[in-house]
Inverse folding.
């Protein structure tokens, strides 16, 4: 039987991309598609898994409904508060959840390469992350940029909240050895560009991924839904889906 997927935010750009990716995959069908004002409980009854790329303001309601109906959840929404993240983690004790900052296979390769580069290059290199998205994006930094910084923090032993510098303005002084700079650019219709910079005296390494279509994220989310179909309750990410751990 085909895996029945509920697509949230069905009228949005990502929702439409997920519908296309679901219809293009022979193993999946769109069981239901909802947007603001639609009956979520009725839609959940027609599906096996939910793919969500909407707003973090909707996440608590969606997570509660998925737990109630015991449906697998693929969460691609970003911008969550720590409290909202904890709600998702708590739900994963009951249902299987893939919670990822980015569902692109290429970006998840960037995550892996960033970790390896941080281990190889080590302390002498200054760390900076630059991201650019379309003018309509509301959260900053992007979920992908945040995850890249988290990886750098994990490998360099620094604290995200204390040592991350979001842009620089005025006489801020020389950068410290511990700080990681994060810079968010917004403009035009950019789907998503991310660069990790490792800078030392005399040399610099840059790792870059550029997305030109939302279909790459949608296709990855459908791949995650299929992978999650036989998994027990727990929280997973795309590194699990792709076998990169």
């Amino acid at each position: 039987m085909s895996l029945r997927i509920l697509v949230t935010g069905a009228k949005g750009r990502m929702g439409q991309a997920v519908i296309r990716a679901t219809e293009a995959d022979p193993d999946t069908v769109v069981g239901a598609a909802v947007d603001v004002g639609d009956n979520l409980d009725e839609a959940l009854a027609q599906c096996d898994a939910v793919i969500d790329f909407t707003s973090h303001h909707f996440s608590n309601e969606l997570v509660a409904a998925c737990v109630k109906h015991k449906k697998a959840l693929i969460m691609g929404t970003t911008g969550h508060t720590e409290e909202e993240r904890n709600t998702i983690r708590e739900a994963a004790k009951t249902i299987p959840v893939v919670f990822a900052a980015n569902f692109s296979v290429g970006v998840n390769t960037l995550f892996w390469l960033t970790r390896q580069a941080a281990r190889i290059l080590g302390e002498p290199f200054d760390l900076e992350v630059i991201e650019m998205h379309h003018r309509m994006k509301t959260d900053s930094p992007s979920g992908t940029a945040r995850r890249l910084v988290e990886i750098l923090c994990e490998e360099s032993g620094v604290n995200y909240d204390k040592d991350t510098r979001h842009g620089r303005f005025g006489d801020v002084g020389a950068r410290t050895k511990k700080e990681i700079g994060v810079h968010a650019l917004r403009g035009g219709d950019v789907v998503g560009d991310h660069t990790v910079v490792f800078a030392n005296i005399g040399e610099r390494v840059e790792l870059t991924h550029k997305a030109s279509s939302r279909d790459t994220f949608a296709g990855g989310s459908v791949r995650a839904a299929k992978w999650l179909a036989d998994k027990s309750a727990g929280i997973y990410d795309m590194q699990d889906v792709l076998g990169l751990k």
Notes: Residues 22 and 28 are 6 Å apart (CA to CA). The chain has a mean pLDDT of 96. The two ends are 30 Å apart (CA to CA). The chain is about 40% helix and 25% strand.
